[in-house]
Amino acid sequence: MIKTGGDTVSIYEDVKKEIDALQTEIIDYAKKLIKFPTKSGNEILAQRYVKEVLEDLDFDYIDMWEPDINELKKHEAFVSSRDSFINSPNVVGVLKGTGNGKSLILNSHIDIVSEGDLNEWSYSPFEGTVVNNKIIGRGVSDMKGVNSAIFGVLKAFKKLGVKLKGDLIFQSVIEEETGGAGSLACALRGYKADAAIIPEPVGFKICPAQQGVLYFKINIPGQSFHGGKRYLGVSAIEKAYKVLLAIESLEKHRCEIYASPLYKDVPIPFTINVGTINGGVWPSTVPDLVAIEGRMGVAPGEKLDNGKKMLENWISEAADKDSWLKNNRPEVQWLKNFLGSACIENDHEIVKTAQKAYKRHFNKDAELGGTPFGTDARSLTEFSNTPTIVFGPGSVAHCPDEYLEIDVLMDYTKVLAEIILDWNEYEKH
Question: Which pLDDT belongs to residue 429?
Fold first, then answer.
C-alpha cells in the first residue's frame, strides 16, 4: 500500500487510473505502428520509431542492430529465405532495475503478414482506423497493439515515479512470421531473463505450452497412359488419396498420444493440414505424379525430428499396404520453414504470477492453454534459458479487417502492468 494525496490506495489502482488517463496515447501508439507496412524486409522505419519511444521512456540501454545472417546460419534453429538483414534491425531496450527483483523479457515481433486482397478490407490496412470500439489494421492484433500496451504501462510507471527492482527487457524483433530469426538473434546476442512473456493473440489464455510447426511436401508417383485405357496406367491421384487417408489417420493418432489438458477444448489440437495438391497434365492422360504440401503441428516438448520420423514412417507403412506404392515409394521432403515447440511447467512462478494478476483484475480464474500455432518461445526458453509464456489479448489475425477492441487492449495493459509490478517488484518515489 502507498500514500497518494492523503488517501491509502494500492499501487495497482494508481497505475490503472494512470493507464486510463493514457488511453488516447496508447491508441495513438498503435495507430502509428500500424501505419508502417512492416512486411519482411520493410521494418526499419517502424524500428526507428520504436527506438524513439524507448528513448522517451528513459530506457537505460537501447540496442539496435542488424542480425548477422552468416552467424545465424550456423544455428540449428535458423530459418529464413532472405540473403541479408541489412535495413532490418532488431531493437532491444533495457530498463535497469534498482536491484533485488526478478528480470522479465517482453518479446514482440514488428513484422506482419501480407495484407492480401485490398478489396476484402472495409478500411485501409495501414491507417489504424478506430470504429465501433475497435482499432482496425494489419498487425494490430499480431502484435502492434500489445506494443502500445507495453509503452502505455511504462509511460504510466514513469508518470507515477514507479521504479522496478528487476530489469525489464523489451524486444521488438523481426522475422517472427517467417521463421523466428529475430528472436534467435536476441538469444545469440546474450539477452536472457528470469522469465519472458510473448503477447501473441491468444485471447487472454495463459499459455505455458507453444506448438511448433513443420512444413512438408510428398511426391506420389503414378504411371501415365492414355485416359481411354486408364487401366493400363496408374493414377497418382488415386494413390494420393491413400496417402491423404494415412495423413488423416496420423493426425488422429498424434492428437491421442499427445493429449493434454491444455488443449482439452481444441477439437484437433495438433493439426496436419494439406494446403496444396498438384498433379496431372491433361484430362485425357493418367497422372504420373501428384505433389501435396502441408503443415504439421508439433506438440509442446516434442522434438522436430520425432515429428518428421513419425510422418515418414506413417507414409511408409501406408505404402507397404499398396502393391504399386510398395515398389514406387512416395517421397517425403521437408521444406525449409519450421518452428520448434516449447513448454514450461504449468505451475512455474511466471504462470502463477500471470494467473494472480488476471484474477485480481477480472475477478475470475484465467484459462491455461497451449498455442495452436508456432511462436518465438523456443528461442527464449531453450536458447536464452528464459522460461516463457504466451499471454496476449485478441484472437483475430492474418485476415481482412484484423482488429483489436479498445476495451480489450486497455484491460490487457492493466493486467500486464500488474504482472510486471508483481514479478519485477517496485519502489515508488
Answer: 62
* pLDDT tens-digit readout, 183-224: 999 999 999 999 999 999 999 999 999 999 999 999 999 999
For the chain, what is the domain count?
A: 2
Q: Name every residue whose Cβ is closer than 8 Å to that of residue 107 and which is 6 or more positions away in sequence.
A: 171, 173, 183, 186, 196, 197, 198, 376, 380, 388
- The verdict on 46 and 155 lying in the same domain is yes
Kindly state whether residue 352 falls inside one of the protein's structural domains.
Answer: no
Q: What integer is the mean pLDDT of 150-155? A: 98
From the list 176, 194, 402, 418, the catalytic residue is: 176
Residue appearing with cell numbers 488443449: 263
Whether 176 is catalytic is: yes
CB-based contacts of 37: which residues, under 8 Å, 6+ apart? Answer: 112, 115, 125, 126, 138
Q: Is there a single domain that holds both residue 175 and residue 253?
A: no
* Parent domain of 142: 2-200+375-428
Point out the catalytic residue in the list 111, 177, 194, 411.
111
Say if strands 90-95 and 61-65 run parallel, antiparallel, or are unpaired.
antiparallel
Q: Is 320 a catalytic residue?
A: no
| Residue 384 and residue 421 share a domain | yes
In the chain, pLDDT over 70 holds for what percent of residues? 98
Residue 106 has pLDDT above 70, yes or no: yes
